[in-house]
Amino acid sequence: MGKEIVEVTTMTLKSIGCNPKKILALPEASRVPIVLGRIIGITSGLKFGEDKTGRGYVALTGDFIGFNADEPEKQYMGGKLFLPEGMHERIVAATENGGAIKPNGKPDYAQVEFAVEISVVPAGNPQGYSYQGKVLVDARPSDPMTALLEKISAGAPQLAAPAAATPAVDAPKEKAKK
After folding, report:
1. Which of 31, 55, 81, 126 could bond 60 through an S-S bridge, CB–CB 3.0 to 4.6 Å?
2. Given strand 56-68, what is the order of strands in its sheet?
3. Is residue 160 included in any domain, yes or no?
4. CA 48 – CA 9 distance, rounded (Å)
């Protein structure tokens, strides 16, 4: 049987069921990094807003799939994403496309492919833990048309070269009889 697909409005580690606090349940001497899950995706833009406290945020928009290491039978899908600090900003920067602007004055966002495995690690902060990311696919601009062309050319027979054109031979013209 296939994976259970779960749609989430906004993808975060919390919304895909990851629990970073589980590292705190371990004896301090045996606290090692614990894989929480993986998130893969292709960004298509950024969404700016303010939370309830008035603090600004930037969400990644696009197509995202999340996997919780504790629930391998589930696959989470969403169109808006927040990653842990550090990982998130790196992908936002790649999506910003160097601040490129379209002729209509709107941002010209890059489609960015990425995949990251996220672990929880012990930390000396008030929470007692922090996040660590392992890059599975480096954040880089995506070129869907080139990828499609590569897929087609990989399995499709090559087109035959056009037949050599032969010069037209003019037939002798008869003179009209009077």
Report:
1. 81
2. 4-7, 74-81, 56-68, 34-50, 112-122, 129-141
3. no
4. 16
